Amino acid sequence: MQYGLRLRIYIFFIIHFLIFFLSVSLQAQDTPPIIPKGWEILFDKTDSISEILSSSEGWKNLQLNKPIKLPYHRTREFQYFWLKSHFVLTGDPEAYSGIMMNGIFMSDETYINGRFIGALTEEEVSNFDAPRQYVIPPSFLKSGLNLIFIRIGVYGEWDAAFSGDVRIVNPKDMKQFGTVNTILFETLPFAIFILIAAICFSLIVKFLFNRTEYEHLLLSFRLILVMICYATLFSPLKLFNIPEVIGIWEALLCLYFLCLIYYYQTLFHLYFNFINFLLIPAYIGTSLLLLFGRDILLNFQGDRILLGIQLIPAYFCFAYIHVKAYKYKRENYKFILSLSDITLNTLNIFTIFIFIVFDTAVFDPSLVVILVTILLSIIFCLYYIKREKIMLNRLTELTAVLKRIEEKKKQINISETVEEKLQQIIRYLKNNYTSIIYREELAKAAGVNPNYFSTLFNAHTGMKLGDYVNDLRILEAKKQLEITEKSIIDIAFSVGFESLPTFNRVFKRTTGISPRDFRKKPNN
Q1: Taking a C-beta distance cutoff of 8 angstroms, is the pair 86, 147 a contact?
Q2: What is the pairing mode between strands 37-42 and 115-120?
């Protein structure tokens, strides 16, 4: 089932990549698009196109792809300015039917030759600079010089940027542009949303059936936060406006920090109660303040400073947890995976942090969220698929071992008398495993020859005699390592081993770590 899900995901991305490639490669060549040149900017808050047409002063040349510093007083509301450009139409005006725009920041009103074409209002904006397109009525364009005006609205806390990617296109290009936008800004986000929801649901179900896997639950919380972020950006219902989106993003960022801190503690089984006691109320309180009280208690710089402060304790905790994990040599694959996870999250958080704190719209947070979410979803999906595969293989191997033991018991007819003698021998071993054990003496006590005794013992316990005795010795050695300060060599001799190298080798084979590392574990 897991591999079927992966296959469907790969097929989905391949199909949409092909659709995107074909839509770009099949662009019409008979009527090339017209690109306006020479953009100018005017800082004027008026919403009257007639006043702008009659005004010839105040216009300045605009440098594309550069942050636009608004000269207005910063408040939590939309601030407006005007852009204008021109293009010369030498062909048939009827051959062009629409205008396509990329890199328009937040809201816009678009005019051609002083006539209204289309708009994206403050209430309709949810994605910051999603591409947009408007149909141009046939009579609006004319042969020769045409003027284009765009009134752009930017939420007052931020600056803007404009790429100048505006094109006057034919109907075929309009249709292809719409198809590409539908794929990138509707179909693809919806598919990723469904993928994250499916992974989240499966993790919650796993936790409900196995209450010890708390990292499943914490990972599902992380994915739920990402899903909420998707809902604020790409919901076709336009559930939130730009101020609400900003508040939700900032609150989610604090909760995401908190979830990461506790996730890594759970992943490595390293819990720091004092740190948690301080950070949990601090992060939850900060997120509530950013979500509900930012307009009352914070100015437009205060929430940014408060958000930036959250980075300091979060990354201190990340470093502290991983230093401890490296010191105690926890599972290497978890260590590598968590460092990769932190790197991806850092890139994501750093980009959004620059976007929000340093007043620049050059970075596109929606694109960052898409890419990082895809990477994180695939990484964790593959990780848990691999982990479940390993657990399934172990379960299969254990089932096979138990089956072989049962088959051996059926093949070997152990009488009640021999069964009782074997039980007595096991009790003897539990009381005398620190002494030298001779198979011949045990076989004599059971009334069988030594070779047949080994077969009976293996069939009865599922283990070889030597492995059984060594397990008893290692169990006692672990207890002494935990509760005493005796040297390792003294412990080795006290539990029945004749040399320290043999003890070290058997201990590591049984527990996976050396006696010295076992003693250094924090719970010891």
Answers
A1: yes
A2: unpaired
Own/partner contacts of 16-19, CB < 8 Å, gap of 24 or more, are 16/183, 16/187, 16/188, 19/179, 19/183
| Exposed/middle/buried for residue 437 (C-beta within 10 Å: 0-12, 13-18, 19+) | middle
Q: How many helices and strands, by DSSP H and E, does the chain display? A: 19, 9
Q: Which residues of 370-404 are buried (b: 16+ CB within 10 A; e: fewer)?
A: bebbbebbbebbebbeeeeeeeeeeeeeeeeeeee
- Start-to-end Cα distance in the chain: 41
- Contact between 361 and 105 (Cβ < 8 Å): yes
- Please give the model's pTM, rounded to 2 decimal places: 0.57
Residue 196, CB-side half-sphere exposure with 13 Å CA sphere: 27
Q: 230-241: buried (b, 16+ CB within 10 Å) or exposed (e) per residue?
A: bbbbbeeeeebb
For residue 132, what are the contacts with CB-CB under 8 A and spacing of at least 6? 100, 101, 104, 108, 118, 120
Highest mean pLDDT among 92-106, 230-244, 284-298, 381-395: 92-106
From CA 494, how far away is CA 484, in angstroms rounded?
13
> Cα–Cα distance between 134 and 127 in angstroms, integer?
17
Residue 151 one-letter amino acid: R
pLDDT given for residue 481 in this prediction: 84
Sign, CA dihedral 413-417-420-425, equals negative
Distances (CA, A) of 347 to 222, 233, 373: 16, 19, 12
217: number of Cβ within 10 Å: 16
Q: What is the pLDDT of residue 2?
A: 38
**Residue 363 pLDDT grade (very low, low, confident, very high; cuts 50, 70, 90):** very low
CA torsion angle 489 492 497 502 (round to 10): -70
Greater confidence (120 vs 150) lies with 150
Q: How far apart are CA 95 and CA 119, in angstroms?
A: 23
DSSP H helices, 132-187, are 171-182
Q: What share of the chain is helix, strand, coil (3-state, %, to 5)?
A: 60, 10, 25
- Structure letter (DSSP) for residue 73: P
pLDDT at 84: 93
